[in-house]
Structure formats: C-alpha cells, structure tokens
C-alpha cells in the first residue's frame, strides 16, 4: 500500500539534519506514488483543449505578461542589450502604459548590477542564474561563490541548476545538501533572494524522476521549482508541468507551505500560455495565479502576447515591427 507524503515526511532521517542520509531520502522518494504516464499525458491534453472566453482572455493575457521572466543568457550579451531588455520589462508596450510590467529580468551575474540600476524601484525583479548554469558541472565551492557573487550584486532571485548526474546516480543527499547550501547563501548578511531550483526535466527521463526531483528540491528549501534552463530539449511540456504542479499541491497539503512553479523553454504563443494558465487553475487552484507563485521562462512569448492584446483592443493585427525584437 502506498503511503501518503505526509507520513513519509514523518520518517526519521528525512528532514532531520542530524540523521538525514542517502538511504532515508531514497526510502522517502521511492515511496512517493508513481506517475501514471498515460494518465498524466491524457489529462494535460484534455485541459489544453479548454477555451478562454473574450473577457477572461483579456485578463489572462495581462496576467501572463506579468508572469514573464524576460531573459537574456547569451555569451554575446552586452550592457546595451540588458538596458533595452530592462526598458521593455518596465514598459512592455511603449505605446500603451496600461500593459503590466513583467515579473523579472534574468541575466548572468556580471550584468546583475546594471539590471538592478536600470530597473530601480519599478517592482521588476532581477534574477541571476548560478551554480555553473546551465550544466551544473562545478565544485560546491565554485557554485556557492557563483551564487554569492549574484546575491552581493543585488539579485532578488537566484535560478540554480541541480546536479543531474548526482540525482540520476541516486546521490540524493548530495543534491539536497547542495540546494540547502545555496539557499543559505541567498540569505547571507541580511539578503533575501528567492531560490528557484531548475530540475532540467529534459534530462531526467521519466515523470517519476520529475516528481522525485520536485520533492527533493522543496524539501531542501526551494521557493520555486523550475522545469528547464531552456538550453536542453525537451524543455517545458504540459505533462511535466502537471507533474510538478501536483508535487506543489501535495507539498502544501503535507506541510502547509506554498512553493512556486516555473515552466521555461518552448512556450512562445498566447495559445500556449493560456494552456498553462488553465493547467495551473485546474491543478493547484487560483492561489497560484500570481507572479509570486507562477512564472513563464519564455521571452519570445511576450511579443505574441502584446500582438494578441492589441488585436483584442483594435480588432486588427499589427505588423511584426510593432514590437521590439529582443
């Protein structure tokens, strides 16, 4: 008989620092209910057919815009590109001040200070990717120094990647301790950076692994769990997002704590965004329909949302030059 997550969490050695071990974590994660692959994919497909009516769609478009982490993570990023991105995050449509700001701008560490200065008191957060993003292949001291550099530069949010090799090898304690250590750095010297833990679900192979990694990240102190870096295919998918949202729901039921969720990579159209918002509403409820608890890692999505928004306001589509190309 499958035990509930609440009863599994009560086992000695799962959350107790003094007795936590690989064997205890393996026992806990192995005791989680398995994911019905066919059922998960069928439910995600069924929810994706739901339509959003005109008045609700206008609200949903603005909500989706407010949930976007506008991102540039390229080797050729320049200060000018980041300034332009920050300006767009503050005011996504230069012609329409009623369009909400995006949730955050996400950059590499060396550009955090610039983004912070550009965004000022706009309310748009600055996120930084750390822990040897996107591979996660570095020593613990390097990962912690990487994170500390971003936090000291003023990052409001840290997007870290887990060590997928350690996770897939069953070294769950190593992954747990790494996330917990990064979380500690996020709160050093009075800092209060939120921690988003990237699972890189495209490399985890099974939905069961996605569920286990989600629980492991939440147990270690994640504020958000995130599907992907956007550098590996497949990135975000509806079934994977469903599994992760179910983990968030079950974690709340077991602990009373609410954890955010962020699908990232491959979400590029308004129709895509609507599917994800329906999935959130039907799986975890309206509590999660806020940028504080749900984000899109999808910069290309913003332009399509802006074009659809203008279409609803004017009755006609604008040309592609209406929006900036990031």
* Topology pattern, helix = H, strand = E: HHHHEHEHEHEHHEHEHEHH
- How many β-strand runs? 7
Q: Say which CATH homologous superfamily of the domain at 22-51 and 127-301 is assigned.
A: Aldolase class I
Q: If strands are numbered along the chain, what order do they take across the biggest sheet?
A: 1-2-3-4-5-6-7
Task: Output the CATH class name of the domain at 22-51 and 127-301.
Answer: Alpha Beta
Q: What class do helices, strands and sheet pairing give?
A: alpha/beta
Task: Quickly count the helices.
Answer: 13
CATH-scheme architecture of the domain at 22-51 and 127-301 = Alpha-Beta Barrel
Whole-Å distance between the termini? Answer: 52 Å
Question: Would you identify the regions where 5 or more consecutive residues have pLDDT less than 50?
Answer: none
Which percent bin holds the helix content? 40-55%
The biggest sheet, with number of strands, parallel, antiparallel or mixed sense and barrel status, is: 7 strands, parallel
Gyration radius (Cα, Å) is: 20 Å
- Give the CA-based shape: globular
EC number: 4.1.2.4
Pfam families: DeoC
Family: Belongs to the DeoC/FbaB aldolase family. DeoC type 2 subfamily.
GO molecular function: deoxyribose-phosphate aldolase activity
Describe the structure.
The protein contains 13 helices and seven strands. It has 326 residues and is an alpha/beta fold. It has a domain of 205 residues: TIM Barrel (Alpha-Beta Barrel). Strands 1-2-3-4-5-6-7 form a seven-stranded parallel β-sheet. Helix 7 packs parallel to helix 9. The longest helix has 18 residues. The chain is globular.
